Amino acid sequence: MKPIIRLSGLSKVYLQEGAPFQALDQVSLEVLPGEIFGVIGLSGAGKSTLVRCVNLLESPDAGIVEVEGQDLTRLSPAQLRLARRKISMIFQGFHLLMQRTCLENVQFPLELEKVPSSKARKRALELLELVGLADKANAYPARLSGGQKQRVAIARALATQPRVLLCDEATSALDPTTTTAILELLQDINRRLGVTVVIITHQMEVIERICTRVAILDQGRVAEQGAVAEIFRNPKTDAARRLVYPAGVPAELPQENPVIRLSFDGGAAYQPIVSSLALECGVKANILAADLRPLEGKTFGTMLLELPDDPAARKKALSYLTAQPHLTCEEVKPHA
Amino acid sequence: MLELFTVDFWNQYGLLLLKETGSTLIMTGLSALAAYLLGLPLGVLLVTSGSRGVAPHKVLHAIVDWAVNIGRSIPFMILMCTITGFTRLLVGTHIGVRGAIVPLVLSAAPFIARMVESSLREVDAGVIEAALSMGASPWQIVKKVYLPEALPSLTLGGSTSVVTILAYTTIAGAIGAGGLGDLALRYGYYRNVPPMALFTVVLIILLVQLIQTVFGRLSIKIDKRLR
Ligand SMILES: Nc1ncnc2c1ncn2[C@@H]1O[C@H](COP(=O)(O)OP(=O)(O)O)[C@@H](O)[C@H]1O
Ligand SMILES: [Mg+2]
Predict the structure, then answer these.
(1) Residue B76 resides in a domain
(2) Which of the four pLDDT bands, split at 50, 70 and 90, describes residue A334?
(3) Strand, coil or helix: what is A297?
(4) Domain at B171, CATH number
(5) Distance from C-alpha of A277 to C-alpha of A324, rounded to nearest angstrom
(6) Which residues line ligand 1 (CB under 6 A)?
(7) How far is the CA of B50 from the centre of ligand 1 (A)?
(8) pLDDT tens digits for B117-127?
């Protein structure tokens, strides 16, 4: 399938008090039509810079930004404005026009396109209906809750029938219940309207809830990208591990004893693996870190176990664990 | 001061007071209108042509910035006296209400440009960014985002501008522009009729209060963030 968004070799350097700061370093990624693609990273990783490059709110110093096969960096200002109408964006801070009603906010992008006002009004009402806020059409944003404001922003973003919806920390200012509702709305929009969604977040839960694929951004570089389930099961880079284990991997692994990592790749149910190790092999393992989570009804996650410093016991444990279904097991070298 | 409460006083000065109050109002109103026609676009340019504006333009920004600063640094009295030739060229006379309007506008416009600039800068940068992301042109952003979103603040700024112009008109009175400032000077100083001086001052205070209240209330009334 041809990607709907193709970023290739994107770099961006900011001047911070005169000193150059590399916010994006050779970032390349592809988003497929109709998918929900996640970009996750810690604060300051360059996520906002990256997503703002997709509609050229930020112009990269190097690299290609292609949306639907069109290289946006080569467009004239007027052509770029036209292209932006098919790439909508929502934000953490909603950014609604405070002096306009909700309805007028949703009409705004249509006014920019000079759609006749009666037609724009009709479409705006339909969209408010879609996001479940038809009753707030004539209310001003100041009167709405955060979740309601984001719904208006989503309706506004959909007004021009975009092909892509960029969401920059769209749920980061919301409480967990509202976050769930907004994520469900985004998923619904993705399914019903076929809009490709790009989700920028620092919250792993957001990625696991609705994204199909994810890129992990770390200090301006893509550390890892791939299917969400794959990266959860086996994070390869430090950056990915930091995100997958929010509780934190112990910085210093014990030097003397061997440590293994177990990856649960979606077994039907969680296996009480540590107690079965003790019961069936007589090996006492110590849990150093664990982060297990249900995903699409299965258990994914990773666990770090410290084994006794006894070669026989270690061998026994490894052969037992290797024989388990839905479980991979590897020895971890202690930190150098 | 008790003369203020006599019929004689009002018979003698009532009509004059009414006429000069009218002159002041006309001078202030017309000057404010014209000064906004000049100052509002300048204020908009200051914001949009800046390095972080929606239509950055270094040279244009530098020119407007300098012109506004120069305009702001010339005291009204000096401006009024030095541009009489220009004023005559423009409106045919440099005295009276008509002659006063030219220096009033030239003095107030740079001031208004700065007031407008600061009001527009209060508009949330995120909202501007959202409009850009929707493909709004710089002109659409000015018309549909900056001005409507800043309207309550612009209105409040309007009271400061109008009061400033009102204060200038009283100075303009010194070169025969008429109005309340002229009255205060003529009767209070040259002819020594203290009640007249007092009364004109009271009138000016009342006008300032009125302007401030009307604009202040209006600003609150139109601000949709407050409901
Ligand atoms: N306009 C700017 N000028 C200078 N530095 C910036 C600018 N925008 C972002 N940065 C820097 O780039 C880095 C990445 O920022 P950002 O993309 O906002 O990160 P994220 O969204 O992942 O938190 C940060 O260190 C930030 O300070
Ligand atoms: Mg960010």
Answers:
(1) yes
(2) very low
(3) coil
(4) 1.10.3720.10
(5) 11
(6) A 14, 16, 21, 23, 41, 43-49
(7) 21
(8) 999 999 999 99
The neighbour count for residue A148, using CB atoms within 10 Å, is 19
How many CB atoms sit inside 10 A of residue A319's CB?
11
Nearest to B135 by CA among A331, A86, A216: A86
State the Cα–Cα distance between residues B75 and B77, nearest whole angstrom. 6
Q: What is the pLDDT of residues A111-145, one digit of tens each?
A: 999 999 999 999 999 999 999 999 999 999 999 99
Size of interface A-B (CB pairs under 8 A): 80
C-alpha–C-alpha distance, residues A306 and A6, integer Å: 43
Give this complex's ipTM.
0.91
- Domains of chain A, with CATH numbers? 5-242 (3.40.50.300), 245-331 (3.30.70.260)
- Give whole-number Cα distances, A150 to A172, A239, A296, in Å: 11, 30, 26
Spatial CB neighbours of A291, under 8 Å, sequence gap ≥ 6? A244, A245, A246, A247, A301, A302, A303
Cα separations in angstroms, B21 against B3, B28, B181, B203: 20, 10, 10, 8
Distance of CA B59 to the CA centre of its chain: 27
Range of B200's domain? Answer: 2-222
**Confidence class of residue A325 from pLDDT cuts 50, 70 and 90?**
confident
Residue B227 lies in a domain: no
Residues in chain B: 227
C-beta of residue A332 within 8 angstroms of C-beta of residue A260: yes
Span A252-265, pLDDT tens digits: 555 567 778 777 77
- How many C-beta atoms surround the C-beta of residue A136 within 10 A? 20
pLDDT above 90: percentage of residues in chain A: 63
Measured distance CA(B161)–CA(B32) in Å, rounded: 8
Closest ligand 1 atom number to CA of residue A51: 17
Total domain count, chain B:
1
Q: How far is CA A202 from the centre of its chain?
A: 7
Atom 6 (ligand 1): residue with closest C-alpha? Answer: A14
